[in-house]
Design goal:
Elements: E1 2-4, E2 10-13, E3 16-17, H1 23-34, E4 40-41, H2 42-50, H3 58-74, H4 80-83, E5 84-86, E6 90-93, H5 101-117, H6 121-132, H7 150-173, H8 177-190, H9 195-207, H10 211-228, H11 235-245, E7 258-261, E8 267-270, H12 290-302, E9 305-309, H13 316-330, E10 335-339, H14 350-361, H15 371-379, E11 385-389, H16 395-408, E12 413-418, E13 427-431, H17 440-450, H18 452-464, H19 475-484, H20 489-497, H21 504-513, H22 532-540, H23 545-554, H24 563-570, H25 579-591, E14 596-599, E15 605-608, H26 611-622, H27 626-650, H28 656-678, H29 682-698, H30 702-714, H31 722-738, H32 742-759, H33 762-778, H34 782-799, H35 802-823, H36 844-860, H37 864-881, H38 884-900, H39 904-920, H40 927-944, H41 946-957, H42 961-968, H43 981-985
Parallel strand pairs: 9-12, 9-13, 10-11, 11-12
Antiparallel strand pairs: 1-2, 2-3, 4-6, 5-6, 7-8, 14-15
């Protein structure tokens, strides 16, 4: 489906025009296109369509028009309700931006500008020319002058002029000086104040040998600028005038040509079509990879041999094809494409590679000349780019042939695609991985729709049949599919091809179980690309036995791993590897693109297998019987030890380093937990659960944590250490409280307290008292909460346990806020002396929570500036720790601060963002926070009106987390301390 608004309004479906009915129906579609991608309210639509002449029944008339427009679309077989979507307060045109020619034009101009800024004027000209080719007349056609269209039309026409300048710049780079002069003469008359056009006309005339005309052009430009603006020409135009007067040789640039040797040995200009073997035409659109394409162009300009290295299915060939096409379009360089995939994998010679090149060139060797001789003759002086696709099946021969050709053909460039680098000195390697997969929660739906992986899936699914259309409902499933195949283009395309017979949700569920289970039944698909298993098997068969064995062992890792983990799990007397061998064989797997490596910000190396490779290797591991059991047990032991070490650190404070370590390793830890439950290894499971409670709480994994604790306690017996069971129960109580299950929290506290009392563990008993105090505050049993927290504070002080003291203090302030909020309707009283206490622990999580409740207290005593300083620090800390619920409550507190300052739109937006985050982790809204929420809502409805308030809150609910954080940190009230001063404020009394 395509929409054309760069001229008379048109809509096409499967290449055929869609009848749009009467002009009034077309006008409605034009308005929606003017606001493409956004919901347009009924009031806005009425204003755009009728203006001041709208009658009292305009909205019902609007609904009738929409119904009729949908019928027009339905006659062409379009599901109109999915394209023209009704929202809460209006309509939205629900189509991908790439379906609108104006959006494609804007993208092409942006790409042209980028190319021009990097000195690639020929490429910029080609992109600009392609964009200009989309124009058929004034945007919106008959509605170009309508008020709703004027801003869009003005923007597009300004971009069109930019594109014309970029196109001319490309023509000048190609030496087309005379050809552009007529166009420029007309353009300078139409746009006499556009200095860039005068500059291009001066330069074109000077390069064409018409110096006097070039100088006269400057005179006329100066007159126009002085007459209409009263200003002299700018520096760039004046500098060109001076350079022309001096006849500066740098202004002359000869036309680029390719030369080839002739029979008599003389050089003669030839066109790039003189060589056969040009790349195959791309039959489908290409998405993303702009960074890689720029890198390829840059490296081929600097180096003569570039190899694209990546796993099977990562899109190396398609990327090379796109890079070659762009190079042909941007320069006069010939491109010769040679497919080596079907070459045999057995012993061969360099001649077999050059035989393939000669065959592609349409040449036949005859004694005494070899295929190498005739290829060298054909390529000499051609300035050609030789692409050797799928070079890994003849790696040594391709390396030798490439080195020889580069040595004998001076101006030759070679681009190779391979799963492994060639390993010769002249080579520059570029890694190719999957397309980026968006994080729907963090980045939001608009960013996800524009992501290259999603666009690729959408395009290929639409081509497979009429059943698929991207919608808000199936977008999460499309993102899940792309994520479960690591964004690999081949896998995305195979998944998309299955939408003809399966729902996207079904495909996503299938991939969760079998990441390598996709296949296509297309008649033209190559044998090695019909299923993902065949793609992987093709690479697996090329590994030596030790590499195959280690690959199977490494499949036990649920996600990434470091070298220490690989050695701990895979090295030992019974595995067949020592530590040095693990490192050596792992390096070989990285070299062959079966394992990828990532370098962290701190310079640590982390390894990872693609999901489909891991699934394939996991089956290989299971076939090894006893080795499978051994490797799984070693994996469990390693991550149980790591988790326990982290838990000891977290119980005394949320160490950022340990939190990051647990987050990084959590997929492996969860796999180890699951394995311990499967094997009924209660001791290992409980060690991990007791250590993970703080992590689960901080990262909003409440339901998951409670489920694990419950499942683990079910397999424990009296032999399981009581201390571990007690700490797991106490942690589960905290998770239950956050979810509002106060009865479950009380039961867990009872069991934990009994165990701690039996053990004589005062620290554990204090931990339970703090948890009980929190539950009592949440239940609004405030007198009991006061008794519990006072006892906990005294015990923590006796133990000199700063972390427990700090949490008791936080909950004591919450208690004070609960009392004040409960008594506000009668006679407010000052907050108690708890506010004069000073936090003692240097734990980011407790510092962040202290900042939230202290900010609430500061608002109660009339100090909004100090409240804002505390909240800014809490926002930063919770964001750094990825603490979703903590960030949710902080946004609510900021919302309340903004509401009291009269910023009701900002407050209502943040209220929606806060609620969305809270619901995402299934956390309860405690009474104190519920009171804050009611306060913001009441004030928001009063100030904005109910309809406007609901709309603004809904906007916040759909806002990406990063945007909500930016909004929260924006616009501090006057007198607010800058970031970091909250630390100093903590030392002050209340």
């Amino acid at each position: 489906m395509d929409f054309a608004l760069l001229g008379p309004l048109r809509m096409l479906h499967d290449g055929a025009d869609v009848p749009l009915g009467r002009p009034r129906h077309q006008a409605l579609l034009a308005v929606l296109l003017a606001h493409r991608g956004s919901s347009v309210s009924y009031d806005r639509l009425v204003l755009d369509l009728w203006g001041d002449t709208a009658s009292s029944n305009a909205v019902p008339m609007l609904h009738v028009r929409m119904s009729q427009l949908r019928k027009c679309l339905a006659t062409s077989g379009i599901d109109a309700h999915k394209v023209l979507v009704t929202t809460r307060s209006g309509y939205v045109l629900n189509v991908p931006p790439s379906a609108v020619d104006a959006h494609r034009f804007e993208d092409l101009v942006a790409s042209a500008r980028t190319a021009a800024s990097r000195g690639r004027h020929q490429a910029a000209g080609t992109l600009a020319r392609e964009g200009l080719g989309l124009w058929r007349g004034r945007p919106f056609g008959d509605w170009a002058d309508a008020p709703f269209a004027q801003p869009v039309t003005a923007k597009l026409e300004a971009l069109r002029l930019d594109a014309v300048e970029l196109r001319i710049e490309g023509d000048l780079a190609l030496g087309e000086h005379e050809a552009v002069v007529p166009d420029l003469a007309t353009l300078t008359r139409e746009h006499p104040l556009r200095e860039r056009l005068w500059y291009q006309l001066m330069l074109a005339r000077y390069r064409a040998g018409r110096q006097s005309e070039a100088l006269d052009t400057f005179r006329r430009a100066r007159e126009a600028l002085l007459d209409q603006l009263g200003v002299e020409p700018g520096e760039e135009l004046s500098a060109l005038h001076t350079a022309i007067l001096r006849q500066d040789q740098s202004l002359l640039r000869a036309r680029s040509v390719i030369t080839a040797g002739s029979e008599d040995g003389r050089e003669q200009p030839v066109s790039r079509q003189v060589l056969r073997g040009e790349p195959p035409a791309a039959l489908t659109p290409f998405f993303g990879r702009e960074r890689e394409l720029e890198q390829i162009a840059t490296e081929l300009a600097r180096h003569r041999l570039v190899t694209l290295v990546g796993a099977g299915g990562s899109g190396k060939s398609r990327l090379a094809l796109e890079a070659a096409a762009r190079m042909r379009a941007a320069s006069a360089r010939a491109v010769v494409w040679v497919e080596l995939a079907e070459a045999s994998a057995g012993p061969g010679t360099r001649e077999e590679v050059t035989d393939a090149v000669a065959l592609r060139l349409g040449l036949l060797a005859a004694p005494p000349l070899t295929s190498l001789d005739i290829v060298v003759r054909a390529l000499r002086h051609s300035g050609a780019l030789l692409v050797l696709d799928n070079g890994d099946r003849r790696l040594a021969d391709v390396a030798q042939a490439s080195a020889t050709l580069l040595a004998r053909v001076e101006d030759l460039r070679i681009l190779v695609t391979s799963r492994q680098r060639l390993g010769i000195g002249a080579e520059q390697v570029i890694g190719v991985s999957g397309l980026p997969v968006p994080d729907l929660v963090r980045e939001g739906a608009p960013a996800a729709v524009e992501a290259a992986a999603v666009r690729l899936f959408t395009d290929r699914a639409a081509r497979s049949g009429d059943a698929f259309q991207l919608t808000g409902a199936n977008l999460p499933d499309v993102v899940a599919v792309c994520e479960r195949v690591d964004g690999l283009p081949l896998a995305v395309e195979l998944a998309a091809a299955n939408t003809r017979s399966l729902a996207v949700a079904t495909i996503a569920a299938h991939l969760a179980e079998r990441p390598d289970g996709l296949r296509t039944r297309g008649a033209l698909a190559s044998a090695r690309h019909r299923t993902l298993q065949e793609v992987i098997a093709w690479s697996h068969d090329a590994l030596d036995p030790a590499e195959q064995r280690l690959l199977a062992y490494l499949s036990v890792f649920a996600d990434g791993f470091d070298l220490a983990a690989a050695e701990a799990v895979c090295a030992g007397p019974r595995t067949g590897f020592d530590k040095h061998e693990v490192l050596d064989v792992l390096s070989g797997l990285v070299e062959k693109s079966m394992v990828s490596v990532e370098v962290t910000e701190k310079g640590h190396y982390r390894y990872r297998m693609l999901r489909m490779i891991r699934a394939f290797a996991s089956r290989e591991l299971r076939r090894r019987g006893e080795r499978h059991t051994l490797i799984c047990a070693r994996h469990l032991t390693h991550f149980a030890d790591l988790t326990e070490s982290a838990g000891e650190a977290l119980r005394s404070g949320a160490s950022p380093a340990w939190l990051r370590r647990l987050e990084t390793e959590y997929a492996n830890i969860r796999a180890a937990l699951d394995r311990s439950l499967q094997t009924r290894d209660a001791m290992s499971a409980l060690r991990m659960a007791a250590a993970l409670v703080q992590f689960w709480e901080l990262h909003g994994r409440y339901a998951e944590g409670r489920r694990y604790v419950s499942d683990i306690l079910a397999i424990c017996d009296d032999e399981t250490p009581a201390a571990l069971r007690a700490y797991a129960l106490a942690g589960a109580a905290c998770l239950a409280t956050i979810q509002g299950d106060l009865a479950g929290a009380e039961d867990a506290c009872d069991e934990a307290a009994a165990l701690f009392d039996h053990l004589g563990d005062i620290e554990g008993r204090t931990y339970v008292l703090v948890s009980r105090g929190l539950a009592a505050v949440t239940a609004q049993d405030l007198d009991r909460a006061e008794r519990l927290l006072r006892t906990a504070t005294e015990l923590a002080a006796e133990l000199s346990h700063g972390w427990l003291q700090q949490w008791a203090l936080i909950f004591d302030i919450m208690l004070a806020l609960s009392r004040v909020l409960g008594e506000r309707s009668t006679s407010p009283r000052p907050l108690p002396s708890a506010l004069s206490a000073v936090p003692t622990a240097h734990d980011p999580k407790s510092i962040a929570w202290y900042g939230v409740v202290r900010a609430g207290a500061e608002l109660e005593v009339g100090r909004p500036a100090r409240a804002t300083a505390y909240l800014e620090e809490s926002c930063r800390l919770f964001a750094e720790m990825d603490a979703v619920w903590g960030l949710s409550v902080t946004l609510l507190a900021v919302s309340r601060t903004a509401s009291q300052a009269g910023e009701h739109t900002r407050a209502s937006t943040l209220l929606g963002a806060s609620e969305s985050l809270r619901r995402s982790v299934e956390a309860d809204c405690w009474p104190v926070f519920a009171a804050w929420r009611r306060e913001v809502e009441v004030e928001g409805r009063r100030a904005l009106g109910t309809e406007r308030f609901l709309h603004v809150r809904a906007t916040g609910e759909g806002m990406p987390r990063s945007a909500a954080l930016d909004l929260a940190l924006r616009g501090r009230p006057a007198g607010t301390a800058p970031r970091g001063t909250a630390d100093a404020a903590w030392s002050a009394t209340g």
